[in-house]
C-alpha cells in the first residue's frame, strides 16, 4: 500500500463535503506529475491525507482512501468547464483522476505550522520549498505521525 497527500481548497471541496458525498473523483488536476501519480501509482486501498490548502489554517483535515483507479477526467471534454482541454480526445485523453472515499475527519486540523514544527516530518514533500503539487506521495512513517497528531 502507498500513502498520499491530496490538496483541495476547502471552499472548493472540503473533508466535510467528502464525508457527506462518501466518494468523489479527484477531477481538475492539471499538473503532469500529479496526474502521473494518479494514473500510474495510485491503487485501490491506498490511504490519503486530505489537505486543506489556502485555508486558515492550511493543513491536514482527515483521511481518505483510493476507491477506484484512474479513469479519464471527464472535465477535459466539457467545453463549459474551466478544466476543458481542447487537445484531449476520447481516444487520447490527457488527464486522469482517481476516485477517493471518505475514511475519517481529524478531531483538529494538523496545520502546516504543526507539520513544520515536528522534526520527524522535516523531509515530507509538502514541506519542501517550492513544493506545490496537489497530489504527492507520503512515506508511511509520516502518514502515521500525521494521523496520530490529528487524533
Automatic annotation (TrEMBL):
<feature type="domain" description="EVE">
    <location>
        <begin position="2"/>
        <end position="148"/>
    </location>
</feature>
<protein>
    <submittedName>
        <fullName>EVE domain-containing protein</fullName>
    </submittedName>
</protein>
<dbReference type="Pfam" id="PF01878">
    <property type="entry name" value="EVE"/>
</dbReference>
<dbReference type="InterPro" id="IPR047197">
    <property type="entry name" value="THYN1-like_EVE"/>
</dbReference>
<dbReference type="InterPro" id="IPR002740">
    <property type="entry name" value="EVE_domain"/>
</dbReference>
<dbReference type="InterPro" id="IPR052181">
    <property type="entry name" value="5hmC_binding"/>
</dbReference>
<dbReference type="InterPro" id="IPR015947">
    <property type="entry name" value="PUA-like_sf"/>
</dbReference>
Amino acid at each position: 500500500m502507498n500513502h498520499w497527500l491530496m490538496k483541495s481548497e476547502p471552499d472548493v471541496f472540503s473533508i466535510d463535503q467528502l464525508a457527506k458525498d462518501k466518494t468523489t473523483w479527484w477531477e481538475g488536476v492539471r499538473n503532469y506529475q500529479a496526474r502521473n501519480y494518479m494514473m500510474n501509482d495510485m491503487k485501490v486501498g491506498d490511504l490519503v491525507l486530505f489537505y486543506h490548502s489556502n485555508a486558515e489554517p492550511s493543513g491536514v483535515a482527515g483521511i481518505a482512501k483510493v476507491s477506484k483507479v484512474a479513469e479519464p477526467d471527464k472535465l477535459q471534454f466539457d467545453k463549459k468547464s474551466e478544466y476543458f482541454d481542447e487537445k484531449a480526445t476520447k481516444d487520447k485523453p490527457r488527464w486522469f483522476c482517481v476516485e477517493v472515499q471518505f475514511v475519517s475527519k481529524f478531531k483538529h486540523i494538523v496545520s502546516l505550522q504543526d507539520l513544520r514544527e515536528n522534526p520527524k516530518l522535516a523531509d515530507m514533500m509538502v514541506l519542501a520549498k517550492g513544493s506545490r503539487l496537489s497530489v504527492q506521495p507520503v512515506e508511511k512513517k509520516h502518514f502515521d505521525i500525521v494521523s496520530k497528531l490529528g487524533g
